[in-house]
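User: Watch each token:
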Amino acid sequence: MKRSNKTVKTKDIFHDKITIHKIKHKHFECKDMSVKDCDKEFEECDTCKPKDNKKFGYLQLYYGRSPFVYVTTPIMVCPFGLNKENWSMNLQFTGIKELAEMKSFFDFIQNLEYYQMSLLGLDETECDRFISQIKHDKKKIYDPNLLVKIPFSYNKFNTDIYSDEYSGINIFNISKFSKMRCDIYLDKLWKAGEVFVGKWKVNTIHLV
């Protein structure tokens, strides 16, 4: 690979710049639940809690006027590389017990999940109705991971990736134990069966 001269940069919106309770939302319900997903239409609803709405469509999140909640991660390890089956990857909270920055970022992600639950109307007894994107190994031996999606539509990835050292970098250069800083974002909360989920997506990857 050639040396890089790319100017793509992360947004550097670190978690200490984000006030969680300033994240707003709008609740949308499906007009007709009997039609196929691709044909469904949605309208804003403010008459009931999202968790109780049988016609729940999604919650749209906003930070200021933006329909996206962006945050720039610390430098994190991708222990398993790119998952090509569902275009996702795990970012490990490496050193969470020793590094104040990593512990603070973990707390931010966790507190934001609690906040998402509150927007849905879920309380602490209903944690099983919200799918956390923080993943632990069964024995909790290793540092936890954050599951993030690589957006893919119209036959292309909607994620910028770059390296300070080399050009020609692409998504498939993400190997096991790659180190990276990423811009990730939340936009909507969805319902899958009887549970709710807010998936982090990756906007920019800076391999380091």
The helical segments are 100-120. The two ends are 15 Å apart (CA to CA).
